[in-house]
Amino acid sequence: MRHLLLRLRPADSLQWVFVGFLALLTLGGGLAALVQQPAWLLPALAVPALVLVLARWQWLYYLLFLTLPFSHELVLGSLHIDVPSEPLLLSLLVCVPLALLLGPGGLGQLAPREWRHPLLLLPALMLAWAAFDTLFSVNVLHSVKYLLAKCWYLVPCLLGTLLLVRRPADFWRVAACYTGAGVVALAWVMPRHATQGFSFAKVGWAVQPFFINHVIYATVLALLLPLAGGLAQQASTPGRRRWWLAAGGLLLFGLITSYTRASWLALPVAGLYYWVLRRRLTRWLLLGLAVAGVGSAVYFTGADRFMNYAPDFEKTVWHGGNFEAHLASTYKLQDVSGMERVYRWVAAARMVADKPLTGTGPSTFYPEYKRYTLKSFRTYVSANPEHSTTHNYFLLQLAEQGVPGFLLFAALVATTLLTAERLYHASAARPEVRRIVLAVVLSLVIILFHLFLNELLEVDKIGTFFFVGLAALIRCDSWTADLTDLTDFADTPPAVADDAHSAVLPAPGA
C-alpha cells in the first residue's frame, strides 16, 4: 500500500496543481449538488483560470488596453473603482513580478542598463519619497491609497511593458490595441453627440458613461493621434495604412467636436516640440520654462501682485450654451473654469509656503486646500462637490509632496524629453526605432501640456500610457545601444512566447 501511495504522489508542481484542482472540483461539486447552488464550483474553475493568467499574463496586458477606453467608475458604497481597468491592473500587479522573478532568466530578463536607466530609477525614487512623505501626511489613509494606486501603475505599465515589448512590432501591437479601442469608443460617443447637433452644451452628456467629462475624453483622443500616425507610417500594406489614417481622421474630428481648449492647443504644442526635437533645442526649451516659472512666481508674489487678478464674482460665469462667449470669457479672465483654477492655484501656493519640505502628504489636497483659500478669488463653483484638486499637476506635487517631490517629477519630465531627443537622432539609420520614439514623445508632450491645466496623470486612461511611454523609451535606448541591425527582424511577428525573453536584439543569422 505504501509503495502504491508513493507512486500516486505528485512528482512536480504541475501535478500538485492538477490534484488540487480535482480536490476542489470534487468538493465544490458535492457542495453544489447538496445545496443546489452552482456557485460552489467557482473555486475549482478559478484554478485553471489562475494558472492560465500566470502562464500568459500578456493576455491581461493586451486586454487592459483593449478595454481601457470603455473603463468607467463603479460606486460600491464608499468604494469607487474603475472597471475593468483597475481589476486588470491589480491582476497584473501580481503577475508581472512573478513573471519577472520566475520567468526564464529571472531578473536578467531586463538588461543591467535598463535597471539603471534614469526613466526607471526616477519613478522609483518618486514612489520612495511619497512613501516617506506619508509619515508626515495630514491624512495617512489617503496617502497609503495613493501609494497602492501608484504601484499598480508603475509595475504593470513600466515593468510589464519592458517585459512584453521585445521588438518594435510588440510596441505597435500595444498601440494598435489602445488606438483601435479608442476609435471604437468614438462609435459610441459620436452618434450620441450627433443627435444633439454636436452642440457644445451636450458634449459632456455624449461622452458618458465611458468618460467622466469631456476633458478626459479629449485628452485621450489627442494622445492617440501620434500613435495613429505612427501606425499608419509603419503599416505593412496600403489597406492598413488607409485604415489608420481614417482612424486618425476620426480621432481628430472627435477632438474638434469635444470643444476642449487645452486639447486643441496641445496639438500645435506637440508640433512645435517636433521642431524643437529636430533642432536639438530641448535643453533650451527646458531652461526657458524653468526661468519663466521662477520669474512668474517672483512677479506674482512680489507686492501681492496676484491680488490684481482676482475675478469679479458676478461676471465670472459658465457659458454652457454659447461656445463663442466661452472663448471670449477666457481671455477676459471671466471664465469660471479658468478662474476657479486660479482660486486653487493661490491656495496651493499658500500651502507650499506653509509646508515647503513635506507638503501635506500624497493625495491630501482636498479638502486641506480649503484652509488656504482667499475669498477674493472665490467663484460660484468653489464648493467643489466633485472633490477635484489643483488643475495643475506640478503645483499639486509641490503642495502635497513638497519641493523634493516636485523636483523629482520635474527631473523625470526633463529626462524624458532629453532622452527622446537623443534617441530620435541616434536612431536616424533605424526607422523602426525612430518611429516609436517620435510617436511616444509626441503623445507624452500632449499629456505633459495637459498637466499644466489638469491633474490627469492619476486617470487610468492617461496615466497608464504615460508609464508605457517611459518604458518604450527605455527599450528604444537598449535598441539604439545595441550594434545589431534591426532590418533583419523588422517584419518578424511580435514575440510573446516564453522563449522571447532576451532584452538584447538577436544578431543577424543568430
From TrEMBL:
A GO molecular-function annotation: ligase activity
Any matching Pfam family: Wzy_C
Entry GO terms, CC: membrane
TM regions (residue ranges): 14-35, 88-107, 119-141, 172-190, 210-231, 243-261, 281-300, 406-424, 436-453
Record-given protein name: O-antigen ligase family protein
Keywords carried by this UniProt record: Ligase, Membrane, Transmembrane, Transmembrane helix
Domain O-antigen ligase-related: 250-410
Superkingdom as given in the UniProt entry: Bacteria
Subcellular location field: Membrane
Topology versus the membrane: Multi-pass membrane protein
Primary location: membrane
Species classification: Bacteria, Pseudomonadati, Bacteroidota, Cytophagia, Cytophagales
